[in-house]
Amino acid sequence: GSPILTVNNGGLIIDTVSAGNPIFNFTNSTLTLGTLGISPSLSASAANFGGADTITVASISRQTSLPVVYPLIQYSGALNGFGSLSLSPLSGGFGGFLSNDVASQTIYLVVSSGPITPVISWNGNVNGNWDTSTLNWLTGAAATNYADGTIVKFSDLATGAKTVNLTAGFSPGDTYVETTNANYTFTGTGSIGGTN
């Protein structure tokens, strides 16, 4: 049979996908989930909830659009007591709710409100300077300038300079270099900090 994981009047913290597909019994307890991604945080052969149960999400990453859906718990057998689950307030100003998709046998977190972090893509068509005034970036098809806190992307789609002159210290929300053909060189006296 399946292993059994029982939590009564306590708490359980899960940061990564678990193995073993246990029967999950949870009563009057708090389940804290760390890293959210495309795979469920917990896989169970059955999930049984009873009493006042709470799901807490440690943090929500920056979002570029809403709503966004994260799988939390996948169950291959029975789900009992879903109605007893509540969601603790989400961090970072986000709001959301729990949803049970019977067809996929998955409990999801739906993040439905909160801050949106803008995404801009390097185009380098004016010059190679990364600064806060030059329109070397695109948001969609519109030229724009850089501001700290935005998410920046460097890709094969840039039509201009691939040598990027860092003119100062910059703190984007995140930095992504996603290329298969373009070779970027970052140079200058500035720096990129505070990013993933």
- Please state the average pLDDT score: 92
Beta-strand content estimate: over 45%
The strand line-up of the biggest sheet is 16-15-13-17-20
Number of strands: 22
Helix percent reads under 10%
Q: What separation lies between the terminal Cα atoms? A: 42 Å
Helix and strand element order: EEEEEEEEEEEEEEEEEEEEEE
Low-confidence blocks of residues: none
Radius of gyration (Å)? 22 Å
Give the CA-based shape: elongated
State the secondary-structure class: mainly beta
In DSSP terms (H or I, runs of 4 or more residues), the helix count works out at 0
Largest sheet entry: 5 strands, mixed
List strands and helices in order, with pairings:
Elements: E1 4-8, E2 11-14, E3 23-27, E4 30-33, E5 42-44, E6 46-50, E7 53-57, E8 68-75, E9 79-80, E10 85-87, E11 95-101, E12 106-113, E13 119-122, E14 129-130, E15 137-139, E16 142-144, E17 151-155, E18 163-166, E19 169-170, E20 174-178, E21 185-187, E22 191-192
Parallel strand pairs: 1-3, 2-4, 3-6, 4-7, 5-8, 6-9, 7-10, 13-17, 14-18, 17-20, 18-21, 19-22
Antiparallel strand pairs: 8-12, 11-12, 13-15, 15-16
Structure description:
The chain has 196 residues and is an all-beta fold. The protein contains no helices and 22 strands. The protein has strands at 4-8, 11-14, 23-27, 30-33, 42-44, 46-50, 53-57, 68-75, 79-80, 85-87, 95-101, 106-113, 119-122, 129-130, 137-139, 142-144, 151-155, 163-166, 169-170, 174-178, 185-187, 191-192. The protein has a 5-stranded mixed β-sheet, with no helix packed on it. Strand 15 (137-139) and strand 16 form a beta hairpin. It is elongated. The mean pLDDT is 92.
